[in-house]
Structures are given as C-alpha cells and as structure tokens.
Queue: 2 jobs
Job 1
Amino acid sequence: MKTDNIENRIQADGVGFHEFKRNSNVLTFHDDFAKYVKSFGDVFYWPKGNFHVVTNALLAKKALTNPLISCNRSSFFISRMPNMDLSLLSDFFGVVSKMTVMSDGDAHNKRRSIATFGLNDELIDNYSKQIPIIIKKLILDAVSDGKIDFAKDISSRLPSIILADLFSIPQEDRDKFYEWSGIMTGFFGGGTGYENSDGIKVNSAAKELKNYFENLLKARKENLGSDFFSGMLRVAAKHDLDDDELISQAIMMLVAGQVTTTDQMNNIMLQLLQSQKTFSEVKEDNNLIPNMIEELKRLDPAVTFIFRVAKDDTYIGNQKIHKGETVFISTHTINRDPSLFKNPNNIDINRKNMNHYSYGYGAHYCMGAKLARIEMNILFTILINEYPHMKLSAERVERNHYSLSFSGFNSLPIVLS
Ligand code: HEM
C-alpha cells in the first residue's frame, strides 16, 4: 500500500477482487473475502478496478448519505466499455436512467414513492399466504433419492416465481421474462471490464423488457387488477409519472429483486449447513429463525459491493474523491465492523445489534427487504422443520462469482433426510 503524495490518498494493490472471488474456496469465501478487502484499510483507491473502496461502516454511511456522491452510475458503465458505440446502448440507458435506483434527490423521492405503491404491504401480505404452497411444490417436484440441488431447484426459482406472480405475468411468457431480467442484473453487478458484446446483449434485453411492459401496461390500464403495475397506475397521475417512468420502475424491481434474493438464500443455506450449532439452535427454537437469517445475511451479503459515482470533488474520511470517480462500498467488511458487532466474524444469532448493511443504507435502502425477509423466513422455517436432518451432500458445491457485486451458486446439493 502506498500514499499518493500529491493528494495524500491511499492507494492499494493486490489480486483483483473479481479474480480473488473466482479463485476462492467455496466454503470459506465470505470470511476470506472480507479479510482480504479489509486488509487494505478503511478507505483506499484500487487501481486495478479504477475505483475507491470503503470498508469502514461509519465512512460507508457518510458516503451513502453524501449528496455529492450519486446513484447515477451511467458513467461507470460507459467507462467499462471504452470502445463501445454508445448509440448501441440507447435502449439500456433510456430504461435505467429513469429508475429509482439510478436517481438522486427529488427524482429519486418521486420514483421511489410510486414504486412503493406498486409493491405495497397489502399486496405482499395477501400474496405471502401462497408462498408456502409454492415452496412445498418446488421441493416435491425436485426431490430425487432424498436429495435436491438447493441452488438449481429452489433458490433460483422461488424469487422469480414470486415476482412474476406479483406482476401477474402469464405462465407462457415467464421464461423469456426471466432471461431478460437475468441479463440486466448481471450487467448491473459491475464488471472489471465489459466486452462490447455484453453491452449489445444488455441493450437487447432492456429493449425486449420495455416492449413487453408497454403491452402489459396497456392491458392493465384497460383492466386494473391487484398486481404491482396496477398498484402504481392507481397513483401515477397524482405523482406526475409518465409511462416510461412506470415501466422503468417495473424493470428495476425485476432486476433488483431476483438474483439478490436467490444469492442470499444460497449464502444462508451454505452457512447454516456448515454450522451445526446454529442449526440446532433454530431447530430447538423456531423464533430464532428470523435472527439466524439476519445474522447469516450479515456475514455473507448477497450484494458484495454497493457502488456510486462522485458528481463533484469530495472526501470520504481523508481520501479525496474526484468528480466522476467510482466508490465501491464493501458490505462484507462494513457488516463486520468491530465497533458495531462484537466478535464480528462469529455467528451469534442472539446478538443485540442485527442492523447490518446487506440491504444498503440511507435513501436507497432496499425496497424489497420486507418481501425478501418474508420469502426467506417461510422457506427456512419449512426446511428446518420438515427436514431437520438435512445436510450438505458429498457432491460439489459450485459458486459462480459472475460480477464484482454479485456472487451466486451453480449448484448447492443437499441431502434432505
Ligand atoms: C435478500 C434479498 C435482497 C438483497 C440482499 C437486496 C439488497 C439491496 C441493496 C444492498 C440495495 C441498495 C443498493 C444501493 O444503495 O445502491 C437494494 C436496493 C433496492 N432493492 Fe433490494 N435486495 C434484496 C431483495 C429485493 C427485492 C425482493 C426487491 C424487489 C422486489 C428489491 C428491490 C430493491 C430496489 C427497488 C432497490 C433500490 C431502492 C432505491 O434506489 O431507492 N430488493 N437492495
């Protein structure tokens, strides 16, 4: 690590983060990665990725509430495709630039409040009664010789089914719908570099999704229902949002709500089956299941990095951040900040402070946290009670670190009984 004399900013170098992830041990990735990123300090510039990294919780909170640090990450995506003809990305940027998750200030507030009407508590609470039925069917359909592949059979399917249901997407359209949103999410996760072909692919997915939702919106306008779109439509005029903005919020929900929940379920399952003590505790007292979920989410968050772009020169701690520079906030490390969590690397499902940063912090705090918590609580309650002897299978657990921010699983085979 060295200090840049001119600006006195800390600069660190080592194995690239994506490379580290890809070469990590599947069972200990979360601990190893947290230690690796933290080893460079509280805040540092990372030339390999051309971004700053924050690993201290207090500094992360300051960065996430700094009005000079923007959610509009377009320039980051553009910088990763220096040879790309940007006109080929016009559909992608047209869609994402209107999303809550890419907006700041008043535009953010307006878009967020309308999206909240779409994903409202009543819709979630009414729908959640169906979740146990979906889960039990997924397990029954998948189980073979007492085994399932949790990643392939359950976690990759459940969040998609739930979102498609909440949008009232017809069954016959769902495969296409899942494919397009998967492409968008992978791109959003941030790469060290993108190929031009990635840009063309994501633009096409954005275009297809937009066309799809234009038709769906037209149908909902003629016949309002109780789905996500209808909820937004009921209040759209009052909030002065046009159709393109409504469609962008719908696509955002898909992009933000699928793989995050899938990955988080996998991360929790792997840790639970590796910790006999935790498994016994929740079997004995089911009331501890929500705590268990929060604690394992803290230790292995689905979103590895939350990132932003500075819209003017500013500071994070003593580190100067130039206008246009990108800041990556490492959730693995801020979730283990020793000033907030005692023995931060240990699993303790009775700890008092469960306020981790796995759902972000500040104005952009996750809008799907309630839904995700309900899904995971129901899923793990069913699994823990109906399969109290479940364990990792001897077959290979395979992770898929498909972007800087996301880390999924290709397979997580478990023996149910
Ligand atoms: C366990 C599952 C989930 C995790 C770990 C997660 C994580 C996050 C994180 C870290 C952020 C902050 C991003 C930032 O500040 O840039 C966020 C924002 C967001 N999440 Fe989630 N999320 C999950 C599930 C969901 C679901 C199910 C939905 C929707 C159905 C959703 C919708 C959103 C939206 C719309 C935002 C942006 C909010 C804004 O910009 O104001 N998330 N999520």
Job 2
Amino acid sequence: MFIGHIAVAFVAKKAAPKTSLGTLVAGALFLDLLCSLLLLLGIEHAQVLPGATRLVPLDFLDYPYSHSLLMVLLWGALFAGGSWFFKKSGRSAVVLGLCVVSHWFLDLLVHRPDLPVMPSGELRLGIGLWNHPWISVPLEGLLFLAAAALYWREFRPSTRGRRLGLLALVMLLLGIWIGSLLGPPPPGIATVGAVGLAQWLFVAWAYRVDQRPGPLTG
Ligand SMILES: [Zn+2]
C-alpha cells in the first residue's frame, strides 16, 4: 500500500481543512517513514523475497516499533497531541491521529499475516490482498484517484504554478506506484529503506501545493 495511504490524506483534508495537506501526508505515511529509517539502522528487519506475495516481494520479519498495532495507536496519539498543541483544534487533532492509525488498517488489507498486534508477541494479522492483485490494484488505484479528485474539487490551488504542482504530484505518485508494480524487485533492503525515506519529498511537496495566500496553514 502506497498511494492508498496518500488517498487518506486527501480525504482527511476535507475533514480538517485547517491542517496542511503536508501534515496529513506525513501522518498517513509516518509508519513507513519510520520503518524505512529503522530498517536502515538495523533496528527493524525485512528482506527482499521474490514471491513473498504476488504483488510485493517483501518479507517483513519484525517491525514492532513502526507497525505493531499498540505502537501505532501510540504514534496516532502523539500526532494528535502535537496537532492539539499547535492548533488547539480537537477536530484537527482527531483527524491527524486517525490518519496515522489508518495506515495500519490499510496495510492490514494487503499484507500477508505479518502485522504484529503487540510489539512483542506472536499474534500477527494480515488479510493478504497483495496475493490478489485483481482486487488490490484497482482498489488502491481507484481509492487514490477518487481522493485526488475530491481534493481537487474542494481545494484546487489558486495559482497556476501550484495547480501544475499538484497535478505533477498526482502523476508522479501514480507513475512510481505503477513502476513498482511492474518493475523488478529492489536489489536489497537498503534500497527499500532509502526509497522509503525519499517519501519525505512528497510531504514537502504536499505542503507546497497546499499553501494558501494569507496566513500559513500548518
Ligand atoms: Zn506500512
């Protein structure tokens, strides 16, 4: 799941218009941004394993800090608390917290049973739609396109440059997603971690296209 997470951020903007799209994208992608860093540091572990699922050749061995449900609820609460601290809006805080937590439940749909419930413990969940590409690919693609269309309708940027920036972001995300589905497996887990960290670019990009004239949103 990649662009499906960003779809959540597009939709969340409608529920919390005062929160920047960049903050919402950071929330929706946070578990993978954290996981990428922890993989590179050798704190969490995964390996490239062609055939692990029909769609995604990754074998997640242990990722308790970024992807166990208990820790995810904690990360969601931290994001909500941070939002409350800066914006004093209960609605914005709840929406941002839910963005973070939504990541786990979208992953639950597509991962095979490798998502831990507790940081330590044996119970791991996953419905495994990555083994059913005819379901998961249209589901994720349509979710993303519908969410991007909703954002465009409600929050179309006021300047031509930002409108082009938003369209370029949507096209780039689609291109990367399709490339990852059709391309060869990554050469190693360090590449997976580095590419994962590069997703901060989309956070910065989303802040940029979402800026409004007048007081800055954050
Ligand atoms: Zn994830």
